[in-house]
Amino acid sequence: MSRKGFTLLEILCAVALVGLVTALSVSTYYAISRSWEASTDYMDKMQRTDFALNQLISGLRSMYYPHDGKQDFNYGFVLIDNGNGEDPRRSDMIEWSKTGTAIVGNKSAVADSVHRVQVMVLEEGDHDWKEDIEVTGLYARHCPDPVLRPKDDEVDYTFENDEMYQPVLIADGIVGFNCRVLKSAETADSDLGRAEFEDEWDQSNAVPYKVELTFHVRDPEEASYRSNTAPIMRIVRIPVFEQSQDGAAPPGEDDGSAAAANRDRAGGNRGGGNRGGAAPPDAGGGGGAPPPGP
Questions:
Q1: For 18, which DSSP code?
Q2: Which residue range is the domain that position 194 belongs to?
Q3: I need a labelling partner for 83 at 20 to 30 A (CA). Which of 169, 175, 199, 200 fits?
Q4: Does 166 map to a domain?
Q5: Which residues are 172's β-sheet partners?
């Protein structure tokens, strides 16, 4: 007489097999879900970083320099070099004068006039302005043009007064910022196709020919093969470079004699400037530039 059915051992093996398949399926689903969330978060950060880059590029391209035939520390480009910029503590700070809504927004009171901006990375917990920084990211501060600030010798209206101008978050997730400058068109090596960008900018009464911007974005969950940040780089040509050099003529003016006359009048002001853009004692307001060092 034959018996039909499953033995207890066969049932246990089937249950174990089903459990194993279920565990593998759940584990695979969980891994795929985490990878999807990490990729989505990373793409979101990259999009916000790209937005921040476009804002910064637009702000640099709208840099302002007066057509008055002379150089002026109030409108020069300032670069504070703090290292390679891979983390907030080694991130650079840049400062310049501009017009337009880039960085400050179309609702800002200074958008329709000349104003000065300062861009830097601030770390969570840093004390800046009146409150601690809540999230690490790229921040900007802006203040009115020196000629529009109140005349009060007892109040410091430059960026040195960190309680005067609140830093505004441009994009979070940016943990590092590095800026290098190409001082003039002559510093480009045309034979090798290589530009000689430098980390220091001492000529604070003028602006560089080009700037190289590198943002470091934190990878999801600090995971990576070589570092915990992903660099993104852009190079920006500064339109007002020529007119900042010895008071050159505005773009489009081909009167060589007038440009030469302007250079002769302002030639004695070139090459000056302390590191970080500090103005000399007789230069008037510093336009937000740091004071001279000891």
A1: H
A2: 42-283
A3: 169
A4: yes
A5: 137
92 near 178, Cβ under 8 Å? yes
pLDDT in tens, 3-29: 666 788 888 888 899 999 999 998 898
> How many domains would you assign to the chain?
1
End-to-end CA distance of the chain: 107
With respect to residue 17, please indicate whether it lies within any of the assigned structural domains: no
How many residues would you count in the chain? 294
1 assigned to some structural domain: no
pLDDT on residue 217: 83
Report residue 62 CA to chain centroid gap: 15
| Maximum C-alpha span of the chain | 120
Q: Which of 38, 28, 72, 25 is nearest to 246 (CA)?
A: 72
- Is residue 18, in this structure, part of any structural domain at all? no
Give per-residue pLDDT as tens, 210-235.
Answer: 999 998 887 655 544 344 567 888 99
The set of residues, in sequence order, having a beta carbon less than 8 Å from that of 35 and lying 6+ positions away, is none
Enumerate residues 6+ apart whose C-beta is below 8 A from 234. 53, 57, 212, 213
Are the beta carbons of 138 and 176 closer than 8 angstroms?
A: no
DSSP conformation letters of 256-267: HHHHHHHHHHHG
- In this structure, the dihedral spanned by the alpha carbons of residues 276, 130, 125 and 60, taken in order and rounded to 10 degrees, is -40
Rounded to whole angstroms, what are the CA distances from 70 to 27, 127, 157? 69, 38, 24
